[in-house]
Amino acid sequence: MIxxxxxxxxCDTPKPAIEFYQSDYVFKGQVVEKMYSSxxxxxxxxxxxSNHYKNGANPNFLKFQLNSExxxxxxxxxxxxxxxxxxxWLVYAKKINGELDFQFYCSNSMPLGRLRIYPSEQKILDxxxxxxxxxxxxxxxxxxxxxxxxxxxxxxxxxxxxPSKGFAAVWLDIDSAGNLTSANLRPNKQLEYEEIDTIFxxxxxxxxxxxxxxxxxxxxxxxxxxxxHWEKYYxxxxxxxxxxxxxxxxxxxxxxxxxxxx
Length: 262
Fold this sequence. Notes:
6-stranded antiparallel β-sheet; CATH 2.40.50.120; 5-stranded mixed β-sheet; single chain; alpha+beta; disordered N terminus
């Protein structure tokens, strides 16, 4: 039995496949008991499990300690949620600091009386134990170039451009060894997926070529394609590096000097 962790309900909900991978238990179950603590600040719910999706231990019951509702504690927030006796839930549960927890906001966990499992998510639940995260491409905002970018910029800084209000954005695709495989200007049309994943929904958009619309975009594309080598990227707890996409922005500062942001 554990205490619910604090969280911000404005965060993004992870893809079901990713949350399945990160969870210790993924199950459907009914709440058969709800008991408040002596100070009424928390309550404990007991789930009777009807269907375990995640391989591993399969207990018949799991208990969770959650924060009590605002009408009981007198502390209301926009993130309030509750679990009631008799409800059926789909739960993605994960150990945090050694204690098992689940959430409603920022999670794919949900009460099944008010919401339903869509066929696309049911596919993930039924096949989640076969998910191979190393097959896919991910976004990385923190990876840095190994190539010396200053030496590349030096020759372009001789060309004086008008200071820009905006910037030229480039999508870089980098393989698991850290080598640049493609660099194209950010698309400005309807996007298409680069591969069809009919089960896990782990697709990325195609990084297709777009003609430059300005001198700045022409230079940005040339600079990006000369940055051949990047840091390797490790996703979650994977031991091997994976493919990833990186954004690069090029602009001209007030002194007419070309600058690059990663």
